[in-house]
Predict the 3D structure of the following.
Amino acid sequence: MNRMTYDYRLQFTKRDKMRYIGHLDLLKYFQRAIKRANVPIAFSMGFNPHQLVSFTMPLPLGMSGLAEYVDIRLESEMPCDDLKTRLNAQMSDGMEITAVRRLREDEDTGAALVAAADYTAVLDICDPDFADKLASLKAVPVWEIEKLGKKKKLKTVDIRPLIYALDCETAENTVIHARLATGSNSNLKPELMLRYIYEKLGLDFDYIRIKIARTEMYRRDESGNFTGLME
Amino acid sequence: MLDEILLRVEKPARYIGNEINMVKKGECEINFAFCFPDVYEVGMSHLGMQILYYFLNRREDTYCQRVFAPWVDMEDMMRAHGIPLYALETGAPIKDFDFVGFTLQYEMSYTNILNMLDLAGIPVYARDRGEGDPIVIGGGPCAYNPEPLADFFDIFYIGEGEVYYDEILDMYKEHKRNGGTRAEFLEKALSVPCLYIPKFYDVSYNEDGTLKSFEPNHPNAPRTIKKAIVKDLDKVFYPEKQIVPLIEVVHDRVTLEVFRGCIRGCRFCQAGYIYRPVREKNADTLIECSKSLVANSGHEEISLTSLSTSDYTQFQPLATGLLDLYTKDKINIALPSLRIDAFSLDLMERVQEVRKSSLTFAPEAGTQRLRNVINKGLTEEDILNGAALAFSGGWNRVKLYFMCGLPTETDEDLFGVIDLANKIVDKYHEIPKEERPRPVSVVASMSCFVPKPFTPFQWAAQSTVQEFLRKTKLVKTNMTKKQVRYIYHEPELCSMEAVLARGDRRVCDAVYRAWKTGAKFDGWSEFFRYDLWLKALKDSGLTLEFYACRERSYDELLPWDHINIGVSKSFFIKEMERAKAGQVTKNCRAECAMCGAKAFGTGVCYE
Ligand code: SF4
């Protein structure tokens, strides 16, 4: 028998104070919010049943998320608006469900689909020539960094192919916009890219002084086009 | 600035508030900072704080906000950047609050109190505070002997908070509106019977260091301060919500307070006397209460908390009621401090997931003789039968709690500890081999006895550190069965705890010096600095022996004699004599021992 499933994707923000909550705590936070909201969540089978909740991609502690995703499975159907209102009634400041959609039959989870993410980084520097410097750096086709690989061995990797887009704005602040490979296949942390840029430009790198937000996540089709996970 | 700092410390969520069910308010006339002098995860697990938080916040004119001791990394950052101690709800510095209240849960948190005051920019000594400084008030179990903290507090509240806080806050509000001074308020507060205001009392000492006199120096200061207790627990305020932390804390669950007090009267246990008489809540009230708490928290576990849950007269209906209500929602029921019998095992079977947790027994002493001395009504037979019952039900892990250094203890009692642990192992092996798939594991944990005020043992001498070490070593070398694991505690810490527990006002100086030289988080063994404490005592002209290891005589004036908990001193003397004679005193339900608490006109004394 083919059992009907009711899968939903929630898009949410995680910012301000809620940036300081780590991934495991976030999971618990959601599980409890779901319970308080009386959402008919489905449970896994087995000895230790747990709610069927799957986050697309953990957000590093301290980073803001403006379009984070979590997929949940319900026992019965629920209108998306209803789901959104009920859960939002349970959210703390800094966290809000911004959109909900029912997943299509056989649609993969966000975690399986995600291929890229957009990041915005407000830098702690003030250099009128930064845009030019970044442009010339961008022209270099290979960005090699040393990374601790498996078995704790240092290996050299080229991160340039993992950067799908890179721009900057130098108005009041120096802001970098980047689209980076994200997901289980290939993944580039914004920290690594920023460190590379800082080092190449001879700047002091203190990650904590840079304010980073993840603003959207995408899947990518065969011809390389990006589509937001809410679509 | 705070933002950047938070990313440089461990667990930044300790310092942000913003939890589920946190109270948000606009401007209020009275601002109350509720301080727990330990780290966030410990403080947030404390039921009393949750109750008082909502109790105070139910008043429209009052905003009660929470404060915890910042962990050392955060403290360093705050000091380096000049960030004063702030409350989690609004981030406002607590120096600007009307009241700064500390809950005194254990002696080894005293230096943290001083540290928090200092970090807040509030003068550490009460006498140095002026207009504009908050009123610093202390409550909780350690307030029953307030003397070792008397110099640092403006007021101590003795007893249960729900009784007089409304009166105090109303009084304060009027006082504030009329523009009264700090000193005037403290005088007015003398009219509240459960408040102890140290500055209105003078102390003098005999040549041998014992107390000579303890006298009020103000005409309105009462000679004794009477603890406040709630008469009817079914009618008293209980919150419908609990703050749900955003990070993992020690106890993260719905907590139901089933009753206050304890009928048992173990002679070493302070909690067993200061909360007398036992007052119960109705099972129906509790079940109702649990519904809103579960709905408002989303917690996965409900825990019954009381000193000895099995003594609850409506235990069966409550336990089965909760199980019926919540099993289908996959909410676990935790049942701490249960006596092991057929019913409780059956219950544990129902509440437990596949893996069986360990069984806990607290015989406290190794021989029946010593168990009679301490009035622990648990016999070897009870323990062995309970264990046998549990073993046949599939349990294989047992935890045993003992105390070392109890009054009248001899080495024979210590060998009794080993005997008992071994007998439990043997009991397991009585089960046919094919029915015991896993090996048995017994953990025997031994702590050091600390004599506490308001117990029959308040006059007793504590063992010296050397004696404790000899005794724990004796047990260790003779505990030879490989199935038994033996754990013991640091005697140095326990001996300092004994100084603080029974200290007088002169101990304030030692607390101050210890803190000044760097003592903090003393309850955490990785931070406890015995050397600092010994030096602090010495520099204050005090000795550890005088406070910890000295036996007092019945006619000595004790530093806490001005506090009246309802249980009479003559009862404690009688109990101490019975202890020496190895006589057991029955529990309140079996036979009233006329302790004096009946005067409160409520509870088990009238059942
Ligand atoms: S008066 Fe009797 S019943 Fe009441 S608390 Fe004391 S011993 Fe127990």
